[in-house]
Amino acid sequence: MTTGFPPLLWRRFPERYTLAGNKCETCGTSYFPARKVCPNCRRRGKLVDESMPRKGKIVSWTQCFVGPTGFEHETPYFVAIIELENKVRLLAQLVDSDEKKVKTGACVEKVFRKINDADKSGPIAYGYKFKIVG
Amino acid sequence: MRSVSIIGAGLTTFGEHWEKSFRELIAEAGIQAIQDAGVSGGQIEAIYGGAMASGRFIGQEHIGALIADQLGLNPIPSVRLEAACASGGVALRNAYLAVASGMYDIVAVGGVEKMTEVSTEDAGFALGGAGDQETELFMGATFPALYALLARAHMEEFGTTEEQMAAVAVKNHKNAVNNPFAQYRREITIEDVMKSGYVASPLKLLDCSPITDGAAAVIIASSDVAKKVCENPVEILASEQASDSLALSKRKSLTELDATKVAVKQAYERTGLKAKDIDFAEVHDCFTINEILATEDLGFFKKGEGGKAVEKGKTALGGEIPVNTSGGLKAKGHPVGATGVAQAIEAYWQLRGAADKRQVKDAEYGLTHNVGGSGATAVVNIYRRLEK
Amino acid sequence: MKAGIVGYGAEVPILRIKTEEIARAWKKDGVKIATGLGVKEKAVASFDEDSCTLAVGAARKAVLDFGLNAQKIGAVYVGSESHPYAVKPTASIVSDAIEAGPELMAADLEFACKAGTAGVQMNLGFVEARMIEYGLAIGTDTAQGRPNDALEFTAGSGAGAIIVGDKRNEIIATCEDTYSFTTDTPDFWRRPKEDFPMHAGRFTGEPAYFKHVLSASRGILEKTSYKTKDFDHVVFHQPNAKFPLKAGKILGFEREKFEAGLMCPTIGNTYSGATMVGLCAVLDVAKPGERILAVSYGSGAGSDAFIFKTTKNIEKKRGKIAVKEMIKEKQYIDYAEYIKHRKKLKSL
To answer: Residues B85, B208, B230, B286: which is the catalytic one?
Structure first.
């Protein structure tokens, strides 16, 4: 089982469906996923909910030819570190992209996809992936 | 803080141990280490064991109790420490702290992993737990993928080439030929690596350390005790550890491992040594790129120069700073929980002049570097022969 | 009616397979089949797309491109014959993914290929009754074609979303009327736990598609006293390109009136998405004051007919990227990749 018992997935729906994160009002740093404490300000920090921008650019990327359990039939697939417009970085799969356009610096936009559907009798894990735009 | 030394070592061969289980491997290494130290089991006061994913690999937790039981050492306290691939290094460090503090005089340290009990995909999933499960492995990012992201960044920033990464694998395979404990005792060529096929581009199959079964154990003692019971103990001059974000995307830089830099800085400060004083190093080459990162972050070469250095033979046996004389994780094998302890054993043998054909001449100071995950944990130790 | 369309969006996967490529796998005459059906290629959902992800993509555009506040949506209905779960709604996933929840009505609908338009009718009723401010209806499918079945050449993937509201400054097309025609006609069905639907061959034509589409069209024309000449655009359910054009000819519509909304030749039959995506494509190009006839068809069987009249708002409010522009971004796959993406092998 790779998607897990429902609560493990369900708890992260806002994060994975809508890029819900937070921001420290004291230092102005945005966080995704949301943090319980701002590492910069710690006790002085004031964290408020914030949705991440849907666009960003590729910082580094790889094409996976071997997948872990649950991704065996999806290879090859692209994985990238993406820097969103608010400087927050996250890791995500790249989809729908012309292989020749997968480059550091390429602009990407969030899409809603199945992340893991390997457990045919379990819950489907939906969430964010990114596609190259422009 | 009291001075602490290694007084005995035990190592199983690394590889695919189809006929031995987890408990047999750690018992084999542990018994050897106790015999090598020349102490009796009754003198050992505590056990520190490292294992990364025994729950995923063999369905067994409570490894501390299992080790004490299998070694016949009940009822002394025994604990398992876990820091992904740095579990062994962290176990050794905590044992070191316990002896240095004066709590114990003689302690056993073990590291073990039995990885061949599951399919390759399940092993990939188990190892993936060393990263951020919820934002990396969940998205399909394997460990090769995470290090591939570091490799791409290094290539694009410094012009490091796939051939330079391949040179790490070629060197380490060559070293492993002379290590009877190594998993792959055969030489390979740059071309072999380049043709081995992408696992996660730009990393190819032969850029990756293998799936390995194996165990390693050392007996450590306060240096005062060590002098009495051991012919030629090896002193642990420093054992430092640092942490960084679990997820790779949250790092300050993708071309260095900050935890390595912090840990080694503290180790150099504690010992008053500089990178150029180190005579050999065992570094965490889980993927070839990580040896390049490590040789830069440990201060052996300038940032961005690690690829060229290995290509020019500066890290080969007989080079400026021999790295991974044991064959490293790449060719000696990488039973994740055992690796940190096995690195210490290579340093122990080198400094005792017991490394046979892979002996570094006149080695005075040795360094080991053990990384957990994609760099969220790093442990750096510095050793030298204990002066009587 | 005061209610009308205030937002729309379509989502079509990037993958395409050519009719000729499918024919090649079965050693059939691809050119002849493509010409006969009027379908040269179809859109294929990738392994990580399903009716839900397509629905979210379409719904997001309908909200974002029209500057609507998702929180004000009072009902979400998702029509599909390929809902990802047998039990557990797609509508709740869509609601959360577009941040419309939690205060709304939501349900999944199934009526073969007309489940999307059924949702539009429900929302029109709720908005007219002032029970909700906005209603979102989506028709979405990753159509399931049995290998080497006639439907394999056309069964495509896509989704269309329509948001209904009643604010005059937001309405881009007022709904003048709607009418439905329903009978028990078993032309196409899928029993529980079956991987692929069954169909009754030529029985799906005259007594099924044509009877219902024609009856619904004639019914709404009679009800409103409009004549064929009063319409500028016509969108019919499009299982292939032949059927809607033939039905139009019988009713006396000029072929050109189908042009804007005929998506089938390039994306295939998107089932619950078909009429909805076609309507989106018409709204992309319709000028103010134009009248649109939209008639869906769902096997089993029934048709929902709608008459929309565009307002002057449509000049300022359209989808950011026109449907026909969006589908130009595509990647062709061969039959082996198609089998992989659509998980047609037992081990996948």
So the answer is: B85
Q: Which residue of B has its CA nearest to A130?
A: B139
Evaluate the omega torsion of the peptide bond into residue C265 and state whether it is cis, within 30 degrees of 0: no
C212 is catalytic: no
Q: Which of B122, B124, B156 sits opposite A104 (nearest CB)?
A: B156
Nearest CA in chain C to A72: C348
Yes or no: say if C163 and C68 are a contact pair by the CB < 8 Å rule: yes
Multiple choice CATH, B140-206+237-385, 1.10.10.10, 3.40.47.10, 3.30.70.260, 3.40.50.2000: 3.40.47.10
Cβ-Cβ contacts under 8 Å for B291 (sequence gap 6 or more): B168, B172, B283, B284, B285, B306, B310, B315, B323, B324, B328, B330
Average model confidence (pLDDT) for chain C? 97
Judge if C53 and C189 occupy the same domain: no
Q: Does residue B180 have a pLDDT over 60?
A: yes
Per-residue confidence band for A120, with pLDDT thresholds at 50, 70 and 90 = confident
Question: What three-state secondary structure class fits C18?
Answer: strand
Cα–Cα distance, A119 to C110 (Å, whole number)? 25
Do C93 and C15 reside in the same domain of the chain?
A: yes
Q: What is the structure's pLDDT at C348? A: 67
Catalytic residue, candidates B17, B154, B284, B334: B334
Rounded CA separation C329/A131 (Å): 12
The string of pLDDT tens digits covering residues C2-43 is 999 999 999 999 999 999 999 999 999 999 999 999 999 999
Nearest beta carbon to residue A73 from set C49, C93, C348? C348
Pick B139's closest partner by Cβ from A63, A72, A93.
A93
Q: How confident is the model at residue A1 (pLDDT cuts 50, 70, 90)?
A: very low
Distance between A63 CA and the closest CA of chain B, angstroms: 5
- Whether C51 and C146 share a structural domain: yes
| Active-site residue (options: C52, C113, C175, C264) | C113
Looking up residue C308, the CATH number of its domain turns out to be 3.40.47.10
Q: Are residues C155 and C242 in the same domain?
A: no
The residues on B that touch A, with CB distances below 8 Å, are 119-122, 124-125, 128, 134-142, 144-145, 148-150, 152-153, 156, 197-203, 247-250, 254
Please write the tens of the pLDDT for every residue from B215-260. 999 999 999 999 999 999 999 999 999 999 999 999 999 999 999 9
Taking a C-beta distance cutoff of 8 angstroms, is the pair C302, C114 a contact? Answer: yes
Chains that touch C (3 or more CB pairs under 8 A): A
Mean pLDDT of chain B: 97
The confidence score (pLDDT) of residue B286 equals 98
Point out the residue among A61, A63, A81 whose CB comes nearest to the CB of B249: A81
* C326 and C343 belong to one structural domain: yes
Count structural domains, chain C.
2
Read off the pLDDT band of B320 (50, 70, 90).
very high
Chains within contact range of chain A (3+ C-beta pairs < 8 Å): B, C
Q: Same domain, yes or no, for C62 and C154?
A: yes
Q: Is B127 exposed, middle or buried (0-12, 13-18, 19+ CB in 10 A)?
A: buried
Residues of A with CB under 8 A from a CB of B: 2, 12, 33, 59-72, 74, 77, 79-82, 89-93, 104, 115-116, 125, 127
Q: Residue C215 sits in which domain range?
A: 177-313
C-alpha span between B18 and B20 (Å, rounded): 6
Does the domain spanning B4-119+211-234 belong to CATH 3.40.47.10? yes
CA distance B332 to B185: 8
Instruction: Give tens-digit pLDDT for C110-145.
Output: 999 999 999 999 999 999 999 999 999 999 999 988
CA B170, B174, B177, B180 torsion-angle sign = negative
Residue of chain B whose alpha carbon sits nearest to that of A13: B134
Residues C163 and C94 in one domain: yes
B334 is catalytic: yes
Q: Is C256 a catalytic residue?
A: no
Whether C232 and C271 share a structural domain: yes
Span(s) in chain B for CATH 3.40.47.10: 4-119+211-234, 140-206+237-385
- Distance from C-alpha of C218 to C-alpha of C43, rounded to nearest angstrom: 32
Q: Is the Cβ pair B120, A72 closer than 8 Å?
A: no
Predicted confidence (pLDDT) per residue in B345-375, tens digit = 999 999 999 999 999 999 999 999 999 999 9
